[in-house]
Amino acid sequence: MTDVHKIIFKPVITERTTALKEKSNKFVFEVDPRANKREIKLAVEKLFGVTVKDIRTSVIRGKSKTTFMRAGRFTGKRPDRKKAIVTLAAGEKIDIFDQV
Question: What pTM was estimated for this model as a whole?
Answer without folding.
Answer: 0.82
